[in-house]
Give the backbone structure.
Amino acid sequence: MSGVWVILEARDSRIGRISWEAVAAGQQLSAMLGQPVYGVVLGANTESLAAEAATRSLGRVLRVEHPLLENYTSDGYTHALEQLFRVEEPAYVVFPHTYQVRDFAPALAARLGQTLIGDVTSIAAGPAFTRQLMQGRLTGTYRHNGSGTCFLSVQSGAIRADAMESEAASIETFVPTLEATQIRTRPSAPFRASAQTVDLGSASLIVSVGRGIKGAENLPLVQELATVLGAELAASRPICDNGWLPMERQVGSSGQTVAPKVYIAVGISGAIQHLVGMKGSQCIVAINKDPEAPIFEVADYGIVGDLFDVVPALAAAVKASKQQG
Amino acid sequence: MKIIVAIKQVPERDAQVRIDSTGKWIEETDLQWALNESDAYALEEALQFKEQHGGEVVVVSAGPERVGSTIREALAKGADRAIHTDCNDLGERDALGVARLLAAAIRTEQPDLVLTGLQSDDLGYGQTGVILAELLGLPHASLILHVEKSEGGITVKRELEEGWFQNIELPLPAALTIQSGGNKLRYATLMGIKRAKTKEVRRLTAAELGVADEPAVTLERIAMPQKQKSTQILSGTPQEAAAALVEKLKFEVRVL
Ligand SMILES: Cc1cc2nc3c(=O)[nH]c(=O)nc-3n(C[C@H](O)[C@H](O)[C@H](O)COP(=O)(O)OP(=O)(O)OC[C@H]3O[C@@H](n4cnc5c(N)ncnc54)[C@H](O)[C@@H]3O)c2cc1C
Ligand SMILES: Nc1ncnc2c1ncn2[C@@H]1O[C@H](COP(=O)(O)O)[C@@H](O)[C@H]1O
C-alpha cells in the first residue's frame, strides 16, 4: 500500500475548489506519513484537466481515460477506479465530498472491503479523522483499522487550499477496461427547476427562517421583521420541503449561496448543508433557543431565546430606530 | 412490485444530547426517539408507488428492542410488514457493517426496489443505501426526489448541487436513496395504528444472518464541536437583546 491518491472533480471543465481542498488534505497526510501525493482525473477527454492538476504539487497525475467515462455514472467510475486501485494499491484515497462522490465512493470502498470515512473536517496525528455527528451538534474522531486502503472524503470549506506550492507533475494515462453493458443507469443532462424570480445572491440583508418557526401560520412573524429591515426572506430546507416557502428561497448546498452584509438566522440549527450556503455573509446573527445550536459556532451575534418573543421585539426595535432616523 | 424501505430510529430532533461515560456515544437513557427524516420520505415514496402500481411495502430496521416503536409507526402509516434485525452493537459497526446486516435481511426478500433515506440524522454517513446497492449487486441512484415507472424500469429525479436536477433511468431491481422534500408526508390514522398491531414483524438476529466482521473504521470518541468564531451573545430580556442588536446593526455593522 503506498501513496496518497486524490480524486479531482471537474466543475465547468476546470478542477473545482473543493478538489484543491482535497489535495491540501492529501498533502497533510503526506507530510504526516512521508508518502507521495498523486492526483487522479477521470473522463473521456482529460488532457486539460490533467494539465491543470499537474501545476499543483502533485507527484504524479493519472488520467483515467475512457469514452464511457464522458458522463459520470456510478458504475463507470466505480469499475474504472476499482481497476486502478487494484493495480496501484493506494495507502490513502482522498475524495472531495461532493454529491457525485457521495453517489459512488461508498460503493467503491465497499467493493474493496473498506468503509469510506466521509465528510472529514480535520486530520490529526495517527492519522485520526474528525467529522460531524448529530447534524453538527457533536464531532466524532475516527480511525482506520487494518492494512487495506483508507478511503476518506473531505468536507467543503473545512481544509484550506491556499498554501500550495507548484511543481510540475508527470502525467500518465490509465485506460480501464469498460463495456457499455456494465453501465446500468442512464443519466440525462442536468436541468434547473424553473426560472428563479428571487435573487437572494444579491440581497444585502437576509432574514432566514428555519424549523423553529413550527408552522406556516407563523411565517408572518419573520416576514414582518424582513419587511421593517428591508430584507429578503430566505429559509432552511425543511421550510421549503414542507412547501411553506418556495424552493427558490432555500439557502444551502442544494439551494442558493448568499453573502449578504447581514444574515439573520431565526430558528435554524446550523447544519453544514445550510452553513455552506451562508457562511460567507459579512455578519451573521443567530436567534435560537438552544445555546448549543451549531449556528452559534459561525455567528457574530447571538440571541439565545424563544424566537416568538425575540423576533417581534426585534421588529419593534428596528421600527423605532428607523422612525428616529 | 415489492419495495423494501430501510428505516432507522434516531434521537428526536430537539432532544438534549449528552456524551456518555465511555466518551464514544451519547447517553441513551431518557432520550426520545423518532423515525429518521429522510427515511420518512423514503417510506412515503414507497407507499405512493404502491398505491399507484400495487405491490407490497416492507420496512427493515436494524437496532435494539426500542426500534420496535419506529417500526410500528411505519406500519401504522401503511407499510405491510416489517423485518427487525435485532442487535445491540450498532455503535461498533461501521457503515459497511450495518449495510451487511441489512443486506443479509433484504436478500431473502428479493425485492424489486430498495429505498433508504439519503442520510441518518445521528451518524450522518450518507452511505448505507449506496453500500447496500453494491452488496446486493443492484444499480442505484442517490439523492432522489421522485420515482416514476417507465418502459424498462424506473425514471428518477436526482437532486444535484445548487438547485440543479437530473433524470436517471434505471432497470429493476434497483436501489435508491431518497432526499427529503419530494412528497408531502402523511400522518398515521387511528385506523392505521390499530391495524399496525396485527401486522407481521419478523425478527432476525445478526447471528442468524451470519454477519460478524471486524469494522474497517472505528469511532474512537465524540466531543462537543470547537467554536470557529467568538460569538457575542446579547443577553437580557427579548426587548433588551433586541435593542442591543439594533445598536450593533446601526453603529458597528452600519446597515440601519
Ligand atoms: C444532501 C443534503 C442537502 C441538504 N441541503 C440543504 C440546503 O440546501 N439547505 C438547508 O437548509 N438544509 C439542507 N439540508 C438539510 C440539513 O442537513 C438540515 O436538516 C437543515 O438545514 C435543518 O434545518 P433547520 O435548521 O431549519 O431545522 P432543525 O435542524 O430542526 O433546527 C431547528 C432549530 O430551531 C431551534 N428552535 C426551535 N424552536 C425555537 C424557538 N421557539 N425559538 C428559537 N429557536 C427555536 C432549535 O433549537 C433548532 O436549533 C441538506 C441535507 C442533505 C443531507
Ligand atoms: N440501523 C439501520 N436500520 C435501518 N436502516 C438504516 C440503518 N442505518 C442506516 N439505515 C438507512 O440508511 C440510510 C443512510 O444512513 P447513513 O449511511 O447512516 O447516513 C438511513 O437513512 C436509513 O434509511
About this structure: Chain B touches chain A through 80 residues (CB under 8 Å). Chain B has seven helices and 13 strands. Chain B has two domains: 2-209, 228-256.
